[in-house]
Amino acid sequence: MKRFMTIICAALWCLGVALRADAQAPRKVKMTIPVVAHSMTPVYIAQSKGLFADEKLELDITSTGGGGPDIRALIAGDVEFSFTTGDNVILAHQEGKRLLMVMSALNKVFINWAMHKETAKAKGVTESMPLAQKIKTLKGMTVGVTNPGALTAHLAAFVIRKAGYNPQQDVQMIPIGAGPTWLAALENRKVDVALTAPPVPETAISRGFAIMFINNAKGEDPSIPEFLMENLIARPETIAKDPDLVRRMVRALTRANQWALQSSPEQVADALKPFMAKTPSELLVAGAASVLPALSKDGRTSERSFQVTQDVLEQAGILKKRVAYAELVTNEFLMK
Questions:
Q1: What is the pTM of this model?
Q2: What is the rounded distance in angstroms from the CA atom of residue 102 to the CA atom of residue 81?
Q3: DSSP state of 103
Q4: Confidence class of residue 67 from pLDDT cuts 50, 70 and 90?
């Protein structure tokens, strides 16, 4: 009997050890991002500073080379989260697919435009020209966007219509991907002008074949004071079934922003380096400096940013019907 009890106790002890080990094992989580860029700063810092690990999370992150596929993967249930722009959440709702923004990590437009130097010379465009005057020169040009359903495409349509032109009639828009393919398309003049997140436009400028056309990172377009730039997005069923997971994700990304806002551009650039190794150091630091003013300290998604995003989509001719803020946004998971 004594031997039997010893065996039972040993078995229970082993079971307890196993359960404790399982409880401490990191939760594997899949998430999409649209591009590798400075706009992904909160994600990269949460990884490099071990903030996901602090929350017992192990992230499997996939870049989709532009917005659109990232949201579709979330809708399909292939990933638990997407860290991307809020415009596609609004447009998904328009198509009957409801997603929820659970935090806002960047709340200002962080997409810049670069124009090929030869195009600028032919059109008489300079970086210092007033915005209204610059965008009037777009007629007859070809604009490069990352993907047809990406924020770059939505912003391009917005600017083209603001200039008084019709997309695909007066101004052509074509997808050119992200990163190297984006740069190659502009350098080889497959497009006259293109837009995406830093540091890609700045790389084109540093290589000497482009000028800055619109610098949204510096607030050149005053009609977009706030925006749903980068947000943590989940399906309603994930939020209902696993609110603790959502809260841990939000906490890690919020802490990443708070760390960045207390750090120098050089420190932020150093944290980004493992994920943007091909970016020259000076552009990495410059991009870090430009992204800091766009970072949200508390992760709150404001109603103003939601409405301005709808304004952009509406003026671009993409949004058919506006949606209520409370339908697609929740701030209940923010850090107290």
A1: 0.89
A2: 10
A3: E
A4: confident
